[in-house]
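Continued from yesterday's entry.
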Amino acid sequence: MTQEDSSMPVSHEDLKMAVDRDFLEVSSSPSRKRAESEVSRYYDAQEPANGPDSDLLDGAQSLSLSQIPDTEFLPVNGPQTAGESSSYRPGASVGTAAAPPTLPSLQRRDSGRGRAMAKELPRKSSLSMPTAPLTFQHHHRKGSSGSISRIYTAGVGGGAPSHVRQPLSQGFLRGSAPPESTSVASETLQNSIPPFTSNESARPGLNGRTRSLSRTRSLSYMKRMEPELPDFMVSAPAKVIMYGEHAVVHGKAAIAAALSLRSYLHVHHLPRDNRTVTLHLSDIDLNHTWDIESLPWDFFNSPAKKRIHFDTVTSLDPELLEALQPSLAPIVNKYHSAATAFLYVYLCLGSKHSPASVFTLRSTIPIGAGLGSSASITVCLSAALHLQSGMLVRPSAKLFEEECVRQLKRINDWAFVGEMCIHGNPSGVDNTVATGGKAVLFRRGDYSKPPEVKRLEYFPELPLMLVNTNQPRRTAELVAAVHGLRNSHPTTCGLMLDAIDNVTAEAMMLLDNKHFRPDDSHLTRLGELVRINHGLLVSLGVSHPKLERVRQIVDGSGIGWTKLTGAGGGGCAFSILKPVQAESDEVKKLKVEETLKEEGMVTYEATLGGDGVGVLWPAMLGKPEERSSITKEMFLAAEGNDGVEALVGVKALGTGRLAWGFWREWLPEEA
């Protein structure tokens, strides 16, 4: 008798349909494999009493010894012996029923071989079982002491009670009693509790066997508790306007360079069943959580309002801002505009299916000092949201220059949207420098058109002393004062603004020269242009006694050249430092820092012309063989600027494949 003679043939495709759908959805993450292995060990230990998993056949209604057919042939796996057919081995007759169809044996779904087979099977919700019984074979897990193959039969018709399911060895089919299991796991775990047990009561399986929900529940539980993405970090620099402030407002050029003081944004992903997003700006005491589902997605995703990652947005939509107000109402912090910028960009770039996250930001940039701290934050948020949505390619040595330009433009465009939420009508120079790094020549004659931006690709890295006078100032009032002066003295003020423009042009010729050497006369000429520019700004009336005191202390000691930066009237000044030639030069520098500290000012040692926005993916530190995660708690626990830089700083972790990566269209990325 052959399989073709069977009155009720069952195809192998039918068995494929019977594979548990839950198993097909199990991901290949190492943590889930370990957990599934623990669950499998428990059920393997209980197998002599309960039989193997009932998940192998979805549509089987019962398993009964009485339905085992009378046949001389039982399907088995393994090498054939002499005299056997190609598909069967002879076996003892048990009854008078017709021989069952020959079917390939099934592996346990938690075995390596069974898992590989299951991945190829189609997902189908049900199985229409034939009335004829099915036979299939089960093998113990690798390493189990009870290695005898076991045969099971499944029937749909009447017969034995539906809850009966027992393993049958070949010896028992030939008339002997079933052997006792010798599994070590059974002896060890017979009284144990399966991992990830459920508090719900057990329910009968589809084949009638009463089984625990713990296994399937454990897999879905692990799936819910596993974040969709790893934690990562984004960083962007501050900026210093070296030449051209105030003149740039009147259509002249300005040079702005990246400063090594940076903002760092840590993105922590929550379990999948959590549907919240949190913005935590620890430096300004802003910490708020929103329910993702309750945000105005329908309004932002409407066809008339929807924006995509590739769009260039030049103005804010008043109706979208109005739709945000209910979500922003609980925030009474004076930095309400920062939350507005985050939500506006988040709703434009994300969706209601965006992963639940906590955005935690810390910055080493002085706030309100004219160094572009807000632009640094918006660049970090823009890059993080693009990465989270999969719309950016992470920095790589193999990334083409043209692709780097596209990635940076996308980040910069949406960072400018955030800047508009904070400042209303920003120039765009701050976010441009924070995105691309190095330095740019910036000019905006017509505010109805995009600005002219030229990257200074040969800009050298220059040592810098930054001094924060801690003197508050109002940028709008200072800009208005220069406007008034120009209206009163158009010719004289016009000449001063032209002179500032000439200083900027000459400085650009020096800085954008690949032959620039910071240790000779080039640096001296650059310093003299710094002093001239500062004198012209003093003539325009935008300096302050504290700024003049800084210039007196630094320039009087002979260690560098000083000028105010930004709008003036307080805020910060910077000094380009001369090269240290002897130990006495270092002593002078330390004495200057002590003097400034005694007068209530704060000094920073920094570098001009560094990298722009960068990514640390995933957020880990340490050597390749002993890397560890940077957690949100570690990030918040870092003490002060020095602690943040020591933990996650670019200098501390370095650059490269396992460290900080940067999009650079002008320099090759490290391997």
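--- second protein ---
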Amino acid sequence: MDVVRETGNTNAPIESAMDRHSRCNRSRALSNAKSPYKRDGLSKRRRLAALVCGLVASVSTIGCGLTQKIPDGPHDTRTSYHDHSALRIEYPQVQECASPVAAAAASAVAPHALQDPASIPAFEITLPDAIAQALRSSPVLRSIGGAVVTTPQAVSTTFDPALAHANPQLGVEAALAAFDAQYTQSLFFDKIDQPRNFNTAVLGGGGGGGGVGAIFPAFSQQTLGTFNSELRKRTATGTSFALRNNIGYTRTQDPSAASQLFPSAFAGFMEAEIRQPLMRGAGTTFNRIAGSAGAAGQIGQYNGVLIARVNEDVALADFEAAVISLIADVEQAYWDLTAAYRVLEATVKGREAALQTFQYQQVRLEVGTGRRDEEAQARSQYYAFEAQVQSALAGPNSLYATEQRLRYLIGMPATDGTLLKPATSPIDAKVVFDWSSALGQALDRRVEVRRQKYNVKRRELELTAARLNRRPQIDLVGQYRWRGLGDHLIGDGDNGEFDNLADSISDGDYQEWRAGVEINAPVGLRAASSAVAHAKLNLNRERALLNETELRISHDLSDAARAIELTYQLVETNYNRYLADLKQVDVLRRRYRDGTDNINFLLQAQRQVVTSEAEFYRSISNYNLAIRDFHRQKGSLLAYAQVNLAEGQWCPGAERDAYELGRFLEPRHHPEAVDVPCPVSNGGFDPSAPQPTVGFEATSWGMIDEGISSSGDSPVVATEATHPKTKR
């Protein structure tokens, strides 16, 4: 349908909406007909964009692996920084301090191998001197295995007890720090300049004429200052005290300043607070065990002062065990060196005897009365003894190897041109121990038992704290506050009531208080109950380990007692065997030279006498080591070696403080009337105290060397078998 315009050419029809839509469709079709590649180009661009996106995603997921597979181009000649600098192995730079141990390590000379020991100057050393030098030569407690190189973290040092005390998380001072007063303070300034959603035309006023617009201006412009300080103290009973001070400064620069008393003012308060737990967290017992973890509400964590003290006692027990191990290793090396000297001497005597037999057989062969097979047998035996002498000098358990082992334990250079020679005679008398007394001492004095009992005590304390923690949190809270307002912070107070904030607060005209109860009770107390169960299981485990430790100690003590009986009997047996072999050699030597017997019997007898003499000296060394092992098993090795453990000297300030404090301390007249917490220990304990459990019995047989008692010695009874006196 056509519509005629009201103005203009009345003969021109107006195009309808339907006609316009048809024309647009025709023109779009004509355009497509004229550009056949337009749609194809758009599709190609879309496919190219999708391909690029896929490549980017692949590279991002593969990482650097794809780029590393692309070979360098002809112009990629510049090397990377990471090829030479970033990946190289560097040497640490530390401050080197001169010490006797470092000097001993650097001053070692070429080691001895096959040199004649008689040509090397001897340095005689007693066993007590060796123990003393081993203890004072280095803060590191050495061991024969040399674990300081492979596992230095497992090596004990004299610093370990001090490290346990100074531990910032588990030490006693760290536990006491939870009860230190805490002071916090903050000071902030703010500038506020912002529009406000108020219609001043409706409220009235606003410019500077007052009215409601002065109270609710269209913008806010202020300078603010806030100062907060707090001093908080927590006591051993769980009570928390706090003293707070708050000062706020406001300077108003918008129209609302007209409605204020002062354009700039100080407002603040002084507040005191007390918070007393009634159930969970209350009492000295809980707080001395749980510490800061209990105050923070952490369940199952205990770092109180009693736990820290137990940790220090365990560290002291570990240190004592390391000292005992060092003394045992020194004695082991010392008696091994003593036996190595004797074995070398016996082997050299056997070699000399074989040489004489060989030379005698050569003379007989030259004059025509000997036989070549006998000469070859004598020659073979001589070289066999020569090989034994060389092994006794430089073998794995030879003289020089055991001497170097002792040198390491006492902190001497590996080789310094001298040769250590033991000067302490071994014990050859029969030592008799009272079994019942020794067993009682072992179960009571062994450091391993004391250490495990401390672990049990720690678990008992944890169980006590876990039970006390299985309660709801109920706190009494009280606050009291003094408020004030002033034009100035501090002043003389001559300008009215609100001249300054300090006077306004101190006048006490505006006071507030608050008192109430806070309750926090987890329904079911599931976590706390789980902590109690966990503490019970830990306690049962430590008690079971304590029982097993005592059982194992009794077995080890029984083995040590049996070893004493066996090694002493072997000393007698090997000595008698040696005497018999000496007689056999004399008889067979005469029969061989008389021509009535074969050389084989003489050569065999020479080998037997060397073996029996070496075994005799080894049995003497093993007997002394068996005595050492028995003392170690019954917990008296420190007393046997006369080594005392004590704290280092206090600093002058600590001694003075202890003296001043002790002047005001007096013993309680009625200690039974005072309720005190359960103690952690039973008092002082001296691991070096002598124990009367041992005596000596005289022997009825004679020894073969100077320094070993003869058959005419009289019986000796002592309270403790000790080394010669040496001051520690």
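The CA atoms of residues 130 and 524 lie 64 Å apart. Residues 1-39, 698-728 have pLDDT under 50 and may be disordered. Will compare against the first tomorrow.
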